[in-house]
Amino acid sequence: MKISQYAKENSVTYMTAYRMVKSGKLPHKVLPTGTIVILEAKEQMPDYTICYARVSSSQNKPNLISQSKRIADFCAAKGWIVKEIIEECASGLNDKRPKLQKILHNPKVTRIVIEHSDRLTRFGMAYIKTLFQGEIVIINEVEDDKIDLMQDFVSLITSMCARLYGQRRTKRKTERIIKELNSD
After folding, report:
1. Positive or negative: CA dihedral 139, 144, 145, 151
2. Do 77 and 137 contact (CB within 8 A), yes or no?
């Protein structure tokens, strides 16, 4: 079947299907005309499912454990075999999360399962979906664009407030240390 037909049948974009062909994830042949035909595989490529859970700070560690369990339970209910459960404590705005980077660069990963889209990233989810060559499953996905926009707005305000209060706390801490040093 042609790439376009494969993309429609598997609910992926044409570019994702094309990248899967180029990376060797899909068996194919190239016709003399240059057309790429995806071969019907007797055995599908084995699923490599990753559960990804994230919290913003180590204070939320108990939530991280329960989040991981809920995602793993969801995968079990779907009949998916989970290869790894990745847990990370980092801001959703931080784009230098080593565990997430490792997942996104691993060509074996065929599926990432998350509880909410903001657990993967606060902004730019569309870019990750476009660039990731596998499937991203969001358990609690927002159906309404207005609600999604409000969640983005609240996320932005929340993260900016956290940064602002964090800076104030750091400033107070620094001032306290300076006072202690001056009093000695």
Report:
1. negative
2. no
Verdict on whether the full-model pTM lies above 0.70: no
Strand partners, 137: 113
Tokens in use for 115? 């509880």
- What are the respective helix, strand and coil percentages of the chain, to the nearest 5? 50, 15, 30
CA angle 118, 72, 109 (to 5 degrees): 70
Give the Cα separation of 169 and 184 in Å (integer): 23
Bridge partners of residue 87, in order along the sequence? 53
Tokens of 144: 């309404």
Pairing status of strand 28-30 against strand 49-55: unpaired
118 is written with which tokens? 């903001």
Which amino acid, one-letter code, is at 66?
S
Asked if residue 82 lies in contact with residue 49, where contact means CB atoms within 8 angstroms, the answer is yes
| Contact (CB, 8 A) for 53 and 35 | no
Q: Name the amino acid, one letter, at 168.
A: R
> For 142-167, how does the pLDDT look when each residue is reduced to its tens digit (9 = 90+)?
666 676 667 767 777 777 777 777 77
Q: 49-138 sits in which CATH class?
A: alpha beta
Amino acid identity for residue 71 in this structure: I
- Domains of the chain, residue spans: 3-38, 49-138
49-55/36-38 β-pairing: unpaired
Q: What is the CA radius of gyration of the chain?
A: 21
